[in-house]
Amino acid sequence: MIIRFLEQHGHKVQDRKNSRVDCINLSKDTLETFLSDRSRSSQKPDIHVFILPDSSADRYYAQIKSLTDRGYPMHSLCCLAWKVTGVQMVRVRGQLVPRRNQKGLEVRNPPFDYLSNLCLKICMKLGGVPWKPEEKSLEELFAIDEAAREGETPEPLQPKLTLDTIIIGADLTHPGSASGRPSIAALVGSIDDSFARFPGSMRLTPAREEIISAENLAAMVAERLRSWSRYNSGRLPSKILFYRDGAEHDEQADADQKLELTFVVVVKRHHTRFFPLTSRDVVGSQGYSYNTNLKPGLLVRDEVTTPRYPNFYLQSHNAIQGTARPAHYVVLEKAPSLEMHNLEKITNALCNAFPRATKGVSYCAPAYLADRLCERGATYLSQWAGLDDYIAHCDELRRKEYTTRAEQKEWFAKVARYLNVVFEARKHWIPETSDGQNPWAAMMDDVMFYM
């Protein structure tokens, strides 16, 4: 069924007869043996699709992703059995069970939407581009036309003007509420002129800190620039558009004078909402609205914005349930060549270019993709057996008051144990298949495997 949907969505499936279906026990040892054999096979497939049982799917997902991204590098996709088959499920006493009709038969719906979404994921993992912003519009928004600024008649725009721009998205996530658990910083950067492909970088950071350290940020940005250079004839971009997903307005950006830098903080956690005044402004046809939200594309530049920095609110999505929450974009640094109204249009275009959604999402794709990459890092950490020891040592080190020599000696012993755990964490975080500081195999560096 999945192969048929791939072909219907434009994928060319080669050697269809050689596609294999294996039923295996998903215990870690059995899974490692299976993946090891497949990675050494002469007929290694482009992607492995794992259909997981309904119970303990999260645990199996973490094992599979950690092994296929790091230990035995290969592209993988996980899906749930009941969603692939279209069986309707209901929760009974905390467990999902099939819904049955009066005759006792399982109720099924055609899983067309779910399988189409799987096709999108496969396309991205293999380096494809499901859709992208219109190139002509991007060229007009990013082009520098000095003649037009001086009031003269502008010359026709030259093609491929966006090739000098890299768009970067960054995010920080704190996996779980346990004290001492390390946070994860992720950064994605575009590599093409249509801003549709965003490979990424990732680092561990101190727990509960909202600011990415200068060392980690510089290293990750350098990796993204090198990746951009590999796909653009060995040269570097002249312009950077940086979206930082975060809750703080006060994070400052240091601009490199050799580059034109635009730095935007994307604020999602706020209490500002917008409501329609007439039925013409709401989502729906013929004056009907199912949730009374404003139409996607609402832009608010003044009245409720802050005077400290240039900023705007953008409601780019149609909320499925409840009141839509607009994203607040605060511009901390803006390149002289990029007009504010063009930045607003670019941001809205990026909200409609999220590769896994067929509609606009709530905030711009680069920041959204960085958030997805952070989630993949949390999956890797969940497989670290020493996480509980790490948390315990962090709790001990917080109580560092001592009055006697013996207490001081005991505290330093705790520090030594903590450093040993951190060293073990680093060995777990960076696999042998990696060629740098990222916690995945080198073959994943330039693809959106995290989708």
Relevant terms:
two-stranded parallel sheet; Nucleotidyltransferase, domain 5; Rossmann fold; 33% helix; alpha/beta; 12 helices; 451 residues; 3 domains
How does this structure look, described?
This protein is α/β, with parallel strands linked by helices. It folds into three domains: about 1-125, Rossmann fold (3-Layer(aba) Sandwich); about 135-375, Ribonuclease H-like superfamily/Ribonuclease H (Nucleotidyltransferase, domain 5, 2-Layer Sandwich), CATH 3.30.420; about 380-445. It has twelve helices and twelve strands. It has helices at about 1-10, 30-40, 55-70, 80-85, 110-125, 135-140, 145-150, 215-230, 340-350, 365-380, 385-400, 405-430, and strands at about 45-50, 75-80, 90, 95-100, 165-175, 185-190, 200-205, 240-245, 260-265, 300, 310-315, 325-335. The strands form three sheets. It has an eight-stranded mixed sheet, with helices on both faces. It has a two-stranded parallel ribbon with strand order 1-2. Strands 3-4 form a two-stranded antiparallel sheet. A hairpin with a 2-residue loop joins strand 3 (about 90) and strand 4. Helix 2 (about 30-40) runs parallel beside helix 3, helix 3 crosses helix 10 and helix 11 (about 385-400) runs antiparallel to helix 12. The longest helix is centred in the C-terminal third of the chain and has 25 residues, at about 405-430. It is globular, with a radius of gyration of 25 Å. The two termini are about 20 Å apart. One of its GO terms (molecular function) is nucleic acid binding. InterPro entries: Piwi (IPR003165), RNaseH-like_sf (IPR012337), RNaseH_sf (IPR036397).
